């Protein structure tokens, strides 16, 4: 049995993730990229002081900032390694927290950095980083530098979900989970979810999926590990173990 993995991330992240899946699983799976969101960059930046500390929680935030500013001499914190690598490639000095928002706040506290902080974010976010920093006594503000615009599933994705073969769906945020299940009401294919976090898993409606597995680490590698485990279980005939 060939398992289908339906990738709903925005491009170009969707294609990159499909390539990573192919490198791990080869022809054991079929991947299809059907983004549920399109990234649109824009916004206005406040004046950035020499002591400003930038905070990035996604690679899109890095790209959005770099479109609006030529500053590359500012220290920045990134939620995870992939975001830090994107910042470093852009010429910024990035410190990776290696995890989620909680890890980011903990790393900033451990380093004793006082700010002021500027969070470069999208129009939709899962957590209030600026509020959390302010609650800890820091000067913190934010700037929206991109939007995540909803798009419809394509015809092939709908056909996949109308079949009776199992479909694995990696979900990288609570919002992507919400959009996916809103757009796929009435789908009959058994859906197996690989969620990047507990928050993303909690956004899956009751009865919406046969199985919901949460990544051990809140990043692409963690989700990829869950995908591999689900594929092994589906091929072995015991997906619910």
Automatic annotation (TrEMBL):
A GO BP annotation: tetrapyrrole biosynthetic process
InterPro entries: 4pyrrol_syn_uPrphyn_synt_sf, 4pyrrol_synth_uPrphyn_synth
Domain Tetrapyrrole biosynthesis uroporphyrinogen III synthase, first and last residues per copy: 32-221
Single Gene Ontology MF annotation: uroporphyrinogen-III synthase activity
UniProt superkingdom: Bacteria
Pfam families for the chain: HEM4
Protein name: Uroporphyrinogen-III synthase
Species this chain originates from: Roseovarius gaetbuli
């Amino acid at each position: 049995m060939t398992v289908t993995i339906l990738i709903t991330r925005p491009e170009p992240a969707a294609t990159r993730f499909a390539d990573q899946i192919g490198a791990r699983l080869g022809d054991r799976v079929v991947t299809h990229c059907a983004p549920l969101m399109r990234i649109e960059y824009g916004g206005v930046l406040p004046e950035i002081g020499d002591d400003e500390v930038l905070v990035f929680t996604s690679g899109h935030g890095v790209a959005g900032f770099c479109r609006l500013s030529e500053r590359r001499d500012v220290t920045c914190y990134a939620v995870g390694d992939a975001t830090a690598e994107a910042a470093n490639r852009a010429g910024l000095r990035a410190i990776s927290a290696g995890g989620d928002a909680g890890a980011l706040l903990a790393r900033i506290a451990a380093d004793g950095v006082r700010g002021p902080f500027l969070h470069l974010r999208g129009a939709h976010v899962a957590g209030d980083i600026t509020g959390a920093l302010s609650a800890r006594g820091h000067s913190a503000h934010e700037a929206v530098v991109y939007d995540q615009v909803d798009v419809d599933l394509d015809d092939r994705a709908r056909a996949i979900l109308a079949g009776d073969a199992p479909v694995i769906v990696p979900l990288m945020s609570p919002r992507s989970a919400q959009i996916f299940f809103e757009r796929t009401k009435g789908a009959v294919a058994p859906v197996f979810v690989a969620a990047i976090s507990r928050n993303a898993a909690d956004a899956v409606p009751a009865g919406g999926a046969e199985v919901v597995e949460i990544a051990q680490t809140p990043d692409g590698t963690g989700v990829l590990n869950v995908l591999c485990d689900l594929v092994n279980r589906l091929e072995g005939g015991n997906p619910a173990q």
